[in-house]
Structures are given as C-alpha cells and as structure tokens.
Amino acid sequence: MQDSLPAAMSIAFLHPIIDALLTRGKVKEELASQLSIPVGALYDPSVTLPANEVYSFLKWSANCTGSPFFTARVGQYMAAGGWAPLVPLMTSAKTLGDFFQKFSQLSSEQNAAATYRLVVEGPIALWQLIRPVGANKDAVYADAVAVGFFGQLLKSAAQDIWDPVQVVAVLPDTSLIPRDLLPPTSVISGQIGLNLRFPSSYLGLTMPPVLPPEGLPELGLPDRHDLTLSERVRQVLEQRISEPGIGVAYIASAIGLSKWKLQSLLSLQGISISKIREDIRRSKAIERVTGTTDKVGSIAADLGYANSANFTRAFRSWTGKSPREIRRDL
C-alpha cells in the first residue's frame, strides 16, 4: 500500500514566517497555540508537524497580515540569507546551478514534503517543485514562498541582465506573487507545486551575496536518518503528552507515514505507542514530583490524566509510593 499522506516537516521551515509575524506584533504564545505545540517548541528544529498543518499555518499567517503577498515576501527575505539552515548551502555554492543541485539533494533528505528537480533543455531550464498526493489546497502558500525565494535568487544573480519576461512561474494561485518580482504575464495558473522556467544560461551565474540579518540563530535542519522510529514517535507524543486522545492516526501524519505503514513498522519492531507514552509520563512525573512544588492536580492534567486519582494510581505503580509520600520522604 502506497502512502498518500504528505510527509512531516521540521518546524524550522516556519522560522522565517514566525520571525516575520513576531515583528508584526504577534506573540509566541499565540503562534504556538495556532500550531498546537508548547511555546518552547517553536524554535526546536527537531519538532515535526504534518505538512498540511504547516500549509494551513502559512495561510493563517497571510490572513493575519492582510497581505496576499506575505509568504512570497518571506521567500524573498530568505533569498538574502534570512533562513539559517540554508545559509551554509548558499555560501558554499559557487553558481546558481551548483545551488539548485545541492538544494535538490537537501530537500530529498527532509521527508519528501516536496521534491525538487532541475531539467535543462537547450536554452531553457525548468525548476520543478513536486508535492506528494495528499497535500491540501493551502500548500499554495508554500508554493508562493518558493516563488519568492527562487525568483529573488534568480533576480539577484542576474542583476543587469534580469528580464522578467524570460522567467515564467506556474503555480496554483497567481494572486500570491507580487508584481515587482514577476509581472502578471510571467505568472501562470497551474497545479499544486511549482514549475519555474528561466534561461539555462542563468545556471552559470555566480551566486549572489548572502547577508544574514544580525542575530540570525545558527539553526540547522534535523537529520532524520539519525532518529529511530521510536524516537520519532516519542518526539510527537512529548509535544502532545497532555492530550490523551492523540493516537496512531495523528502520530502517523506527524512523522510522514500512513497509518497503515506506521502500524506495520511498530508491529515489526515490537514498539508500543502506549508504552512510549507511559515512559514519557513516568519520567516527567518523577521529575516534577521530586523537583518542583507543582500541585499534583496540575501535574496530572499536564500529563494527560483525567484526574489526580488516576495519576496517583499510576505513580504508585511506578515508584511504590504516592506523590505525597515521595515528597514527604525527600
């Protein structure tokens, strides 16, 4: 059975969007609430989200600013060095062609939320962004980020020879692209994803200067190959440990697998979601009972228990004592 869900994405992909919203008066608590994650997870690149949740957040962000060009503008900002994970790639590439090839390789390592491919046919180069089956309609806002980023990159490299008439972007929603980047005649409506056509001679152009803004954090993208399946499941559960209803369907979506495939892999490896959840609860419960003065009811709620009695029963099964008895003996 083939997966039909889009892959998960590191929250690092949203960092330029988050930064832009913060400069416009939004607060971290509101953004975290919109993403249904703890505030502390906003800048943790190991945190992953279902791709469709990322796309929906992009749409929400554009609506908040009142500008249809918001996501494309963020893409342009990223092209100048405004996205930390790409800065090393941009500075190491000598030419645009070199960068496109390296970027394609990078995207293939990030759970296939999008696949990039460079095709050269004589005088024409085609840069394709292909999204998997299952990407929702809000993915158009991510496509707009891509147009802003790659369009600005081409424009900055071409400088005096830049001719927007020679560049054509095909994407689902043409209204998201500002005219000072590409004129209406160069933006054509098409399917989800992006086809960016430009002169193949541009591939030999020197990469434009990269000037990261002052204070840009040194954040990279997580290496998914270093994480086991149980570690990826654990990451998702830790983000939502206060929600007892989080089950296999959500976890599968969050790590970029179909429900069927996740269940099959868990079964083959002898991994139990309930066991991982209990391990998380146990370690966090012991840490808070012994290291804080938090009320038992508060700890119980934060760990997804319906009431203090259920939590106390579980705690006693782990330690042989109730939370109150443990604290009394400290």
Can you characterise this structure?
The longest helix is centred in the middle third of the chain and has 20 residues, at 139-158. By secondary structure, the chain is of the alpha+beta class. A five-stranded mixed sheet has the order 3-4-7-5-6. It folds into two domains: 8-204, Alpha-Beta Complex (H-NOX domain), CATH 3.90.1520; 227-329, Arc Repressor Mutant, subunit A, CATH 1.10.10. It is built from 14 helices and seven strands. The protein is elongated and about 75 Å long. Helices cover 48% and strands 10% of the residues.
Keywords for this entry:
single chain, alpha+beta, H-NOX domain, Arc Repressor Mutant, subunit A, two-stranded antiparallel ribbon, 14 helices, 48% helix, disordered N terminus
CATH class of the largest domain: Alpha Beta
Helix content: 40-55%
Record the strand order, biggest sheet.
3-4-7-5-6
Largest sheet: 5 strands, mixed
Q: What is the CATH architecture term of the largest domain?
A: Alpha-Beta Complex
Unreliable spans are: 1-6
Structure classification:
alpha+beta
Brief overview:
With 330 residues, the protein is α+β, with helices and mostly antiparallel strands. The protein has helices at 15-23, 28-35, 51-65, 70-82, 87-92, 96-108, 139-158, 229-239, 248-254, 259-269, 273-291, 296-302, 308-319, 323-329, and strands at 8-10, 48-50, 115-121, 124-130, 168-171, 187-189, 194-199.
